[in-house]
Predict the structure of EFMT1 methyltransferase.
Amino acid sequence: DDDDDIPQLSSHTLAALQEFYLEQQQREGMKTSQGFNQYSIGSIEEDWQLSQFWYSDETALCLAKEAALAAGKGGRIACISAPSVYQKLKEQDGKDFSVCILEYDRRFAVYGEEFIFYDYNHPLDLPENLLPHSFDIVIADPPYLSEECLQKTAETIKYLTKGKILLCTGAVMEEQAAKHLGVKMCKFIPKHSRNLANEFRCYVNYASGLD
């Protein structure tokens, strides 16, 4: 009987698989149901192949509040590879600032005109309407802990910011962050929704509320 060669899933594996698919369907159902907040963290799931790790809700809120405060009334904020901060900024009630998201992952195009496709390998390949030094603060979280990635992202940051920079990256990048952006490590320690192996820190070049 040829059927003997077909691998059969154990009842335990099959049940686990069915449970996984059910959870997935429920998540999708929640997303399409009325009242779903498209800006909530996790509405677009992490893609580890793109080195995506979302901040915890508390960290994203803290960074969003800091960025809004630093931008000031009517300020402009750019989020480079930091979608969970962008999402938190969009959740702010009565906000008096504008924000855009520069991101490689095209799933974030659901956010319309505020989404700008961004590839750190081409740091100045930006739309014409993104004028130099047109953002009151730039918050960036380079996807990789490498000097090359930081250096290229730094080019974009320096092009866009009027001066203020909020960088989130590994503690191991402290020296390179100072070298390429003139930023110093803050006391505030950002957390992620999933624990990362590498210690993560925030860096700024202005008097912030993160110390």
In short: Confidence is low (pLDDT under 50) at residues 29-36, 39-43. DSSP finds five helices and seven strands in the chain.
